[in-house]
Amino acid sequence: MSATVVVGGQYGDEGKGKILSYLALHDKPDVIARGGGGPNAGHSVEHEGKKYKIRLCPSGLVNKTAKLVIGAGVFVDPDVFIKEVEEFGLKGRCFIDRRCTLLEPKYKDEDAASEIGSKIGTTKTGIGPTAAARAKRIAKFVEEEERLKPYLCDSVEIIHSAKNALVEGSQGFMLSNLYGTYPYCTAKDVSASAICSEVGLGPLDVKSVIMVIKAYTTRVGHGPFPGEVSVAEAEKLGMQEYGTVTGRPRRTNPGLIWDELKTAARVNSADCIALTKLDVKYPACAGAKEYAKLPADAKKFVEEIEKKLGVKVGLIGTGPAAGDIIDRRAGQ
Ligand code: GTP
Ligand code: IMP
Ligand code: MG
User: Which of 75, 172, 197, 285 could form a disulfide with 12 if both were Cys (CB 3.0 to 4.6 A apart)?
Assistant: First the structure.
């Protein structure tokens, strides 16, 4: 078994969904496992003219033959899970680890009504209260929800029987409860080690850690964010975005925050950077599939990232679809 782990290197919404969909199709994993958070995540995937908005099931679902599992560490909201299984036709192929924590409606209500939730600007999906309940040993397991029973599995058995596993993280390093901008962060660590633990993998099971970063920086929710520009400025640069889960406008820094990225690369032990939205920063890159065809300023930017972080930029996003990518992992 060998596993590739994909994590976010900034404040979430780096474009993990798109990178994961490419890896799921190109690297042909036989098992794709989701770790991290729960329904607070929002991943966007575009493939063969279809758009998917995914919160709980693995974003690699566009690979129709891989087995999909939700790891033990993920908080499962049954309504969100069932909706995705039906909407994306995943019955019989997407399973939940039997050790997963059940995200109950009361936790969502508590998140939405809490003072600290408003102060942080959470997604109001119940993540903090569920994590607290789990820590207090009062949370329920997914088996207590009748509708989830047909989907339960032992994901440790499944992932360790895989030949080639793709592991999906969620959120981003600066939202980690340990390394991020506490208390303006999510309820768990989201670095590669934590994601591995959540899907039942140990440190020696991993062959590659791909850290996804966007060519500029965005953040949703409150908390420190150096280099932030106004919505009008971000609009002018074509960088203004809106949240997948909450629809909230994202805050923008048109550049990269190097000291944060350096720590993120270290703690995640990233051996590959996936750089997304290079075409948003340099429109002449749109649709490019070869590194040699990129304009000089874009190449200089890629080289600057490699030099400053000491990690190869192995994947480059040049458009929204799964296939709009330059894959230089094996050369170029
Ligand atoms: P994660 O939470 O990290 O998965 O990111 P996200 O999917 O939440 O980001 P968002 O909701 O902002 O969606 C990203 C959008 O940008 C999707 O429509 C993607 O198809 C698109 N996208 C991803 N990578 C690229 C890229 O390299 N270039 C362009 N132009 N679009 C991209
Ligand atoms: P929570 O995870 O819902 O408790 O939210 C805590 C913080 O993390 C808030 O600032 C959220 O906006 C942010 N957050 C949580 N999940 C995501 C995500 O998937 N993308 C971007 N921000 C997120
Ligand atoms: Mg997102």
Answer: 172
Q: Which CATH architecture has domain 2-327?
A: 3-Layer(aba) Sandwich (3.40)
Q: Which of 13, 77, 324, 327 is catalytic?
A: 13
Of 301, 306, 310, 302, whose CA–CA distance to 266 is shortest?
310
> In angstroms, rounded to a whole number, what is the distance separating the alpha carbons of residues 196 and 266?
16
**Catalytic one among 27, 43, 47, 189?**
43
Q: Model-level pTM greater than 0.85?
A: yes
The candidate with the shortest Cα–Cα distance to 225, out of 184, 274, 191, is: 184
- To the nearest 10°, report the CA torsion of 171, 153, 3, 178: 30
Model pLDDT, residue 26: 97
pLDDT of 245 over the 90 cut:
no
Q: Which atom of ligand 2 is nearest to the CA of 117?
A: 4
pLDDT surpasses 90 at 25: yes
* 5/107 Cα distance (integer angstroms): 29
Q: How far apart are CA 303 and CA 130, in angstroms?
A: 42
Centroid of ligand 3 to alpha carbon of 327 (angstroms)? 22
pLDDT > 90: what percent of the chain? 97
Residue matched to tokens 């440790």:
156
CB 252 within 8 A of CB 229: yes
